[in-house]
Structure formats: structure tokens, C-alpha cells
Description:
By secondary structure, the protein is α+β, with helices and mostly antiparallel strands. The protein is built from ten helices and 22 strands.
Amino acid sequence: MINQERIKNTLLDLVQISSHSRKEKDVAEYLRKACEALGAQVETDDAGEKVGGNTGNLIARFPGTVQNAEPILFSSHMDTVIPGEGVRPVVEGDIVRSDGTTILGSDDKSGLAVILETIRAAKDANVPHTDIEVVFSICEEVGLLGAKHVDESRLRSRVGVVFDSDEPDILFTRGPSSDAIEFKIYGLEAHAGVAPEEGISAIRIAAEAIAAMRLGRIDEETTSNIGIIEGGKAVNVIPNLVTLKGEARSLDEAKLDAQTAHMIECVQAACARYEVSVDGKRTKARFEHTLNRNYSAMNVSDDSRAVQIVVEAGKRLGREIKTMASGGGCDANVYNNKGIECANIGTGMRAIHTVKEWIDVRDMVASAELGLEILKLHSEQARR
Ligand SMILES: [Zn+2]
């Protein structure tokens, strides 16, 4: 029932419409037309204004053929990472790849195409379904900002599926909490050649702090990184300020807290080693830090409705859907925290966030077949 040629063409259309985060308007317009042609009521929410983007999340409501039943949520994101403008897809049989100068944008345009194809196929074949609420979100790639600004009181679904990962038979049900951490390390400025004794190098302190930090993979559930370091003005000036920006993620809140505490201790210990006296005035190195929650963990149980419906739909298709933990966050993290239970199913996207990105259209077909079976199953459960 899934039309392979049509889903491929939808993907090709979508990847050729540029949509870096905060610039999703043109893709939103394409999707609005497609959804309206399928009978949906479509609105754009105010998330765009809140995050400084050129459009909000697109919310499409497809009326069900089964009445008075709880709706189901389908979601994928409209934005892509850079370099994603002027994508020229290369098609080799069932494989679609970028031409090597940009990403392809199958993250997450494959998800958009899968959702559209699922609904098109449901209409074509008169597959019974409940109301379907679709959220095409903005700014997923820059901190799940679109999903965070979804007003959940405007959605009736309490269960759903996010289409935003690789293997079509893997359902990501667990994802980490992520904290952003930023340090400002203050030393003391001095002439590096004339009076180095009178200075405290913030760069040196930063180096010692980072060298002492456990970073990278901390354990099975926890990772951490310092990704940005900025500081210094001139080679003959002892630098008085360095900024470090990093993150820590864990499936376990206690481990996440332990990691951020460890990072802070490392900076504290390095600062504590440095102080100077200049003209009787003592100066100690010092630092400030800020800790912000990027997003909170997703932890959907294998017994939950959101998982059971996907696994059961897979079984009906003769497929074994496996649940797994992811090292990344996605819109599903946010929806779960807003009371809409959902996990993240694959669409076939590969080598994402690189110029080698590619996708096998047959994986998208498999994902849409699963989507269609989920719609059927959900409508049967609603009628029971
Ligand atoms: Zn994505």
C-alpha cells in the first residue's frame, strides 16, 4: 500500500527546500499544502516568534474515519543542520545521497516524507484511523526548541510516535538528560615579558582543569564534552579570562549530577593553585559557572502503550521491533515530559550530520508501512 516512487519523490522535493534551524518557512509551506490537500486543518503556532525563527511549528489535524476515539500524534522535525542549503540529491537506484558538498537532510525530511506517505496511503486504501495530530516541529537541531514551545493543551493525543532515527526496526525509548555547562575563569592580566610574576594565566588554569576532567564516554550511560574554549587577547599578555563551554549527558540523573559536579571541582581545584601579590594586593584566580538543562531524559517503558503499539504493529508485519537507548535527545524527550507518551522510530537516515549522509528509500517504505499498521491498530484499540 505504500507507494515507493511517491515517498521517494516527496523526499527529493523536501531535501531541495533549504531549512536550516530557524529558517523552516519554505518547508512548512510545502507541508501545509500537502496536508491541506489530504483534508487536514493546519495551523502554525507561535514557537517561531519565541525562538526568533521565520515560522512556528506546523500542526496538522487529520479527521479520523473512526469517531469519538482518542487521536494519535505523529511528529518529525522540519529543520536540518548545516551545511544544508542548496542540497543537490544524487539518486542511485533506491539510494539517495548528498553530492558530498552538503548534508542530505534526510534527518529529518525522511520523517516528514514517511508521515505524509503514511497518511496518503491510509486515504488511498481507506484504512480506518482515528484523528491524527501531526506536529512538524522547528529547531530540533538547536536544542529541541520547537517541541519545547508546543502548547500541549492544544493537542488531544496522549500517545504518539516520533520518526527521527536510523533503523526502521529500532525504537528508541530511552534518551539522556543533557546539561549545558559554561565556565568563566578569571586570572590576572600582566605583561608577559616585563612582569609575568604579576599575572595569573586563565589559559593555564583552563588547561589544567580540562586535563584533570573525565570527558568523553564516562560509562555506558554517561558522556561529557568540552566543545568550545575562548580566551586571550595577545601573545604578550597574560590572559585574564577564558570561557569554556561543554555538556554532560546521562540516562541517569544522579550520574549526570556527579559528572557536572566533577567538572566544577576540576576548575575549582585548578583555580585554587593560583594567586599572586602585586604591590601588597593579593589576587586569587576565580571562576563562575552556569549550568542549564538542555533537555530531560526520555524513559518509556517496554510495557507502555507507546511501545506496545509499535511492537505489535511490527509483529503484524512479521517484523521484530527492538527497543533501545540513544545517546542523543530528540523531540520525543520533550513530548514525554509534556505528557504525550512516545518513542522514536527509525526512517532509514544514515551518516547524518555529515556530507556523506544517505538513505535507502526501502527503509523509508518500511517505516511508512509500520506507520500505517500503527494507525490501523490504534483505531482498533479505540473501538474496543
Ligand atoms: Zn533529527
